[in-house]
Design goal:
Strand order of the largest sheet: 12-11-10-9-8-7-6-14-13
Order of helices and strands: HEEEEEEHEHHEHEHEHEHHEEHEHH
Largest sheet: 9 strands, parallel
Structural class: alpha/beta
Strand content: 15-25%
Number of helices: 12
Shape: globular
Radius of gyration: 22 Å
C-alpha cells in the first residue's frame, strides 16, 4: 500500500549482497570478542570487560522466545545480596545497561582529535555533515574514509558518522558504506520517516544506529521501538526554541532507563551542549552520555580556581626545591 516499506527482496542485488556481507562481518567480530558485555537484545559487537556482570532481579523467564537462559549465581563473598542473576547467551555474558559516564568529542578537526585523545576522557568522536562543513571535510566516502583512519589510529572506541541521502535507498546505501569502514562505526540517521526506515534496515543488518536531531520526548519512544543504540537530543537548540531542554532530556532519560530495566542498552546521547554547567545539570538529572565541542571540553579542564591552585602548588614546589641550595 502507499507508504509501505520496500521489501528487502525488492532491493537491488548489490545492496542486498552488501547487507548480507555486513551481517557476516559483524557476526565474525562478535565471535572474535571475548568476555565482552552486551545486552540481551543487543546486536552490536561486545566490548572487553573485566568487571563482574550481575543483575539484582530476573529480567526474562528461564527460557524466552529468543532462546536465552536466566541462571542464578551466588553473589560475591561479603555482598549484601544473596543471589545475582546472570543473563547467558550463545556468545557469553550479556549485561543490561552500563552506568559508566561516556563522553564524545563533537568534531571532525583532526588536531582536536589528537589533542583530546591524549587525555583519555573521550569514548569516541561524533560528526555530521554540518560539522564536516565547519571543519573542512568533504562529505564523500573517500574523504570520510581518510578522516576515519586517524580516529582508529587513536584507538577510539566508537566513531559516529552520519548517513545522507534524499531517499531511503540512497541513505541506506551510504549508511552501509560508512558501516563497512570499521566495526567501531556507529551510523547516525535523522529522526525522519526516511531515517526511521533506514534505521530499521540497519538494525536488521546488525549495524549500530544513532537517531539524531531529536527534539521531542516522544521521539525517544520511536527510537527505542526501532532498536537504536543511541538517541541524540539537541539540548541547546531545544532551549533556543523555547523548550526546557534539561527537563526534556531528563524525561527522555527516564524513558530509556525504564526500557533498560527489561532489555536493551540504548543510551541517551545529549548533543548541542553549550557549557560545562549544562553538562553537569544533565548529569544531576541522570544523563551519562554526552557529545561536546572542543570549547566545552576546555571548560571541563579549566576551572579558574583549580588553575590558580595548581599555579600556587608549582610556586611552592619550586620554593621548597630551592631551600638549602
Amino acid at each position: 500500500g502507499p507508504g509501505a516499506l520496500p521489501r528487502h527482496d525488492a532491493m537491488p542485488t548489490g545492496t542486498a549482497l552488501r547487507s548480507t556481507t555486513r551481517r557476516l562481518q559483524l557476526a565474525g567480530a562478535r565471535g572474535a570478542s571475548r568476555g565482552g558485555i552486551r545486552s540481551r537484545s543487543s546486536i552490536w559487537p561486545a566490548r572487553p570487560c573485566d568487571r563482574p556482570v550481575y543483575r539484582l532481579a530476573p529480567i526474562c523467564s528461564s527460557m524466552d522466545d529468543d532462546g536465552y537462559d536466566d541462571e542464578e549465581y551466588e553473589g560475591p563473598e561479603g555482598s549484601d545480596e544473596e543471589e545475582f542473576t546472570y543473563v547467558l547467551g550463545g556468545d557469553g555474558l550479556f549485561d543490561n545497561g552500563d552506568p559508566s559516564m561516556r563522553l564524545y568529542l563533537d568534531s571532525a578537526d583532526q588536531n582536536q582529535w589528537r589533542k583530546w585523545a591524549e587525555t583519555g576522557m573521550f569514548f569516541g568522536f561524533t560528526t555530521n555533515p554540518t560539522i564536516l562543513r565547519r571543519d573542512g571535510v568533504k562529505c564523500t566516502l573517500p574523504s570520510i574514509r581518510q578522516m576515519s583512519r586517524l580516529a582508529f589510529e587513536l584507538d577510539v572506541e566508537e566513531l559516529q558518522l552520519q548517513a545522507w541521502g534524499e531517499t531511503v535507498a540512497e541513505m541506506y546505501s551510504n549508511a552501509l558504506d560508512l558501516a563497512e569502514l570499521d566495526t567501531r562505526v556507529v551510523v547516525k540517521v535523522p529522526m525522519t520517516m526516511d531515517g526511521i526506515q533506514t534505521a530499521r534496515r540497519l538494525v536488521n543488518d546488525e549495524v549500530p544506529v544513532t537517531f539524531t536531531a531529536v527534539y521531542s520526548v516522544h521521539q525517544a519512544v520511536t527510537a527505542l521501538s526501532v532498536g537504536a543504540q543511541y538517541i541524540a537530543p539537541y539540548l541547546g537548540r531545544m532551549n533556543d526554541a523555547g523548550k526546557d531542554g534539561i527537563e526534556a532530556c531528563a524525561s527522555m532519560q527516564a524513558i530509556v532507563d525504564m526500557s533498560q530495566e527489561r532489555d536493551g542498552e540504548t543510551r541517551l546521547l545529549v548533543a548541542s551542549i553549550r557549557s560545562a554547567d549544562e553538562l553537569a545539570a544533565l548529569a544531576v538529572n541522570g544523563c551519562n552520555t554526552f557529545t561536546i565541542s572542543p570549547a566545552v571540553a576546555e571548560q571541563l579542564v579549566s576551572d579558574p580556581m583549580t588553575l590558580d591552585a595548581a599555579r600556587v602548588f608549582e610556586e611552592h614546589a619550586a620554593e621548597m626545591r630551592s631551600m638549602g641550595d
